């Protein structure tokens, strides 16, 4: 059984909710924050897919203002496309299309500024454009990068993978609130999973990862040490046990986690949960990672 990085993160947040979703197959109603996050992530993915084309289109003698204008126009068009692609989901959670655009635009605009500065700096430094400029730029960024390791039974999709000349670094993009310092435990676990899988796939050590909280515009570095890797394997084994069990785990003791949970009503209805658990046909259940 292959377990995903997001499943491990979900287990760490609330094992009972994960069990309800994966074993009882309960569906949580869609939330506006989730759909807005999808719009933002989809835009970043499109930006990365077009990165080489955008870089190679910059003229050698372009000013920074001209480069920024070009990036801003392209990124705005990609965001409009993403909003339109998700219009039905946005309608279902009562979010107007304009609100979806204005919510994501500050983050996308900062990305345009950062990339424009990097391109302009490299043009000035190397005096090249087109394919030669692309070759000089580092790191290259791979988007929605699929990783898996049969050996450790883990898989995932990395939001962004920075490919440097001598190392790689996984980047996780988050649209929610950032902690006062460091990263949330589930996010730390998630990037540790990616790092461990990359090490198995590439045969190279991944020393750190980054969690980028887009709305707060802060990028936090996570050191990947032996303890983090051991925790990943330990939790993976616990998740496998959970997904194979017909016994519901106890409710979380952190009441704040229940406040915004779409499964709270069913989760707290012990009679409903026990009845569903008794009716489970283990031969028909599929543990979805």
Features:
single chain; 289 residues; alpha/beta; Lambda Exonuclease, Chain A; 6-stranded mixed β-sheet; 6 strands
List how many beta strands DSSP finds.
6
Oligomer: single chain
Helix content: 55-70%
**In terms of structural class, how would the helical and strand content be classed?**
alpha/beta
CATH class of the largest domain: Alpha Beta
Give structural notes.
- The chain starts with a strand and ends in an 11-residue tail after the last helix.
- Helices cover 56% and strands 14% of the residues.
- Strands 1, 2, 3, 4, 5 and 6 form a 6-stranded mixed sheet that branches.
- It has 13 helices and 6 strands.
- The protein is globular and about 70 Å long.
- The chain folds into 2 domains: 3-18 and 140-241, Alpha-Beta Complex (Lambda Exonuclease, Chain A), CATH 3.90.320.10; 32-136, no CATH class.
- The chain is of the alpha/beta class and 289 residues long.
- Strand 4 (168-174), helix 9 (185-202) and strand 5 (208-213) form a beta-alpha-beta unit.
